[in-house]
Structure formats: C-alpha cells, structure tokens
Request: fold
Amino acid sequence: MPRTPQADAIVLFGGTGDLARRMLLASLYFLDADGFLPEDFRIVATARADMTTEAFVALAHKTLAARSEGLDDAVWRRFAARIHYVGADATTRDGADRLKPALGDARRPFFYLAISPSLYERVCVALADAGLATDETRIVLEKPIGRDLETSRHINVALGAIFDEDQIFRIDHYLGKETVQNLIALRFANTLFEPLWNNLTIDHVQITVAETEGVGDRWPYYDEYGALRDMLQNHMLQLLCLVAMEPPADMEPDSVRNEKVKVLRSLRRFTRVEATEKSVRGQYTPGVVGGQAVAGYEAERGDKSGTETFVALRADIDNWRWAGVPFFLRTGKRMPEKRTQISIQFKPVPHSIFGQASMHDLVANRLIIDLQPDEDIRLSLMNKAPGLSQGGMRLQSLPLSLSLLRTYEGAGGRRRIAYERLLLDVIHGDATLFVRRDEVEEAWRWVDGVADAWTEAKLVPKPYAAGSWGPSGAFALIERFGKDWSD
Ligand code: BG6
Reply:
C-alpha cells in the first residue's frame, strides 16, 4: 500500500546524459512493462540540448533497443507516449517555467537530478521560483552529495530551505540491488545468524567492490574524488552499515536509517599513524584486463595525478557488538574481475577433536554474499570427506550455496536494474532505501578523517598494474592483522 499519494510524473534533469538514458529510462521502461507505472504517469526529460520530443524518443529507443532484454512493441508504444522532452537551462526560472506545459495535468511530479551536484542548489531555487516545489513534490539526488562534510552540508542546507527532509530522496544505487536488500532478509528473517552476528563468533568482515573498467573519460569528475570519495564514502559504507547495524524495530524509513547512522557514528576515526598501518592507496598503470591491453590512469587523464583508483583499509566499529572485529574494505578500478562481495569470516573452532592429521583441513566457516556479477549466498561448512582414511577423519570445507539467479530462474528471473526498485519507491514515497541527511554527513565526517590522515601522513597512491588486485601493500595490510583477502 502506498503510504503517500503516488507521484504522477518524473522530471529527469540531465535527460540526455548517460545515467538517464542507460539506467533511468531503461528502469522506467521495465516498470512500465511490469505494470508498475501509474496509468497517466508522465516522463519529462530535460537538458540543455535543443531537441524535439520525437528526436529524444528516437534516442531513447536506440539506447533501450541495444539492451539484451529486447523491446516489446506494445510496451514501447505506451512508454514512448509518456515521454516529453524540454530543451532548457534548468538553473534559470525561465528554464523551470518551460517544464510546465510538458507536465500537463501532473500535480505530484518528482524531480530527478541526474546532473552535477554543483547545480543542485540553482536548479532547486529555479523550481521554487517557478512554483514547482510544492509540499507534494519529491526531489531525488544522485551521489556524490558534496566532496566533503562542508560541501555536503552546504547542499543539504540549501535544499533544506526549499524541501522538507522527507521530500528529499538521496540515491545510493547499491541499496536498490536485490542482494543488498537480501542482506536485510538474511539477517532479520532468519534466526540462524543473528545470535552469531557479533565479536564472540565473527573474526572479521571483508567487503570488496572490484571493477574491471577504468576511469576513461570520466576523469574530470573522478580526479577530484578518487576511490575513497567515489565508492567508499557511499556504496561501501552503506554495505558496512547493513552488515553491522542493530535490528531495526521495523522497515520504516527512520527505523532503518537510525540504525545505520549509529554504525557510522561508531566508526573509529583514523589518525595519522593509523593511516599508514590501516590503509593503502593505489593508482593503476598500464596492464592487461580481460586479455586486452589497457592504458594507465595518468595516460587517460593526460597528466600526472595524485588521485587513488584503489583503496584498501581497515575500519573499526567501536560498539559492544563489533569491538575487536576488523572490517576490511577494498575497492578499485581495473581489477582482474568485476566482483562485489561481502565475506563474513567466523572464528575457528576453539579445539579440534580430529587429531593432528586433520588439523590443516579444518577451515573456519565463512559466509560469502556475492552481489555482482552473480547473486549468490554461500556458507562454507566443514564435512567429512567421503571414503576411508587412516590416522583420523578427513575433513573438507564445502559451500552450502543459494544461487539466487538459478533459484528464481523461470519466475520472472530477469535481473532488475537497481534503479527500478528505487524509482518505484520514490513514486510511492517510501524512503527506506534512501540515505538520510545525517547518514551522508556522518559518512563524510569519517571519510574526511581518512583523507586528512592521508594528507598528514603524506600517503600517496602506489602504482599497480591494471588487471592486478592492487598494490602489494594491500596484501601486506591485511596480513599485518593475520588475515588474507578471500579471493
Ligand atoms: C558509481 C561510481 O556510483 O558506481 C562509479 O561513481 C562506479 O565509479 C559505479 O563505476 C559502480 O556501480 P556498479 O553498480 O556497476 O557496481
């Protein structure tokens, strides 16, 4: 049941951009195909480019038809009829006024800012001046919200002057991913894990977000941000929060977000000394990924750069549940494979009854949650290896595996784009999977501490060959604490 009136239109700022065309329009199309879009729902795309609606629809068709799922003619016709394009400078009152005819009878549009954060404030002021920011409007913001605590506060304050917090939907598209939500189900819809989910039983946690792509022509943005601000501040800290948070009272937006923010507040601040012990920065140099020779980051950027494209660090959560349990986070571009994975390493059994011969076979349990490319949950368990043996039972670690794709194959098992879930939630006004202002700011506060510690410690990115798992320091980092990356 929708909690608030359904939105009746989306206005897509940055409508001709990559995100809007590849992700947002595709997600809206699939929502339409599955009957989730309200009947008269309008899609207004706007950007500076002067273009007719017909031309924009043709562009959208080209992008969508290139997807592997293919287009259904009847759905496409219905979908295309919803689209209107407005070429305008959205930062001006005149630009905002020009959206009105395209909105037609829509009274509760939501505004999706798929544009540079530096324009957020001006666009919102223009919307307010044009009378388009009413109590019923919702505004959706893409990350990054700022570049540090100060700039994010600036954006939040400016938007807060126009919209109430419950009208602002800050997107972190990782929260729209099926397996990320499944983490909530895994933890709180089973009795099995929760009693073990603490420092008595868990040895450490690893979160890896590895990408094979390089930065390419996104470098003007990326060079200002780097892996710490582009990935760790948002996606990775959100994953960490979902792993570490206390059970929320219910799935209401504030119940969940209150628990996440407590985790962020419990993250131990980095000091200058810890920066070198507990973190590694890297930057890719030329190498080979997927059999292809690829350029280094500086060649793509065309100049020297002190920006990291890889970061690995140890985070500590100072609370009762997690005291003493390291969280190792690692993310990088131009890694050997695309992999987003959370690995929960349990402690070894306190004593082996199996004798000396089996000692080396005894492996501590591990729960692996694969988010990408495959969606899978695997729990490694010790078994007796079949057959006869001398000198003690032979043991073997085997995975209990729940391949989500295979399990749901044939049941509408198309892999959804993360934005489908999130757009549908905005339409219904459900903010559970969106990031609240205090979460963004707490995440920045901690990340600023890491960045400051790096500056004080003069920690520069170490080179790593594209196609490798980062600089050797990343291995030394985790080994220093007696662990290994779960590759
Ligand atoms: C974005 C980052 O937020 O997430 C990109 O800005 C990154 O640098 C992307 O490539 C990764 O998203 P996904 O869904 O492909 O893991």
In short: The chain has a mean pLDDT of 93. Residues 219-244 form the longest helix (26 residues). The domain at 9-142 is CATH 3.40.50.720 (Rossmann fold). Residues 211, 230, 340, 372 surround 6-O-phosphono-beta-D-glucopyranose (CB under 6 Å).
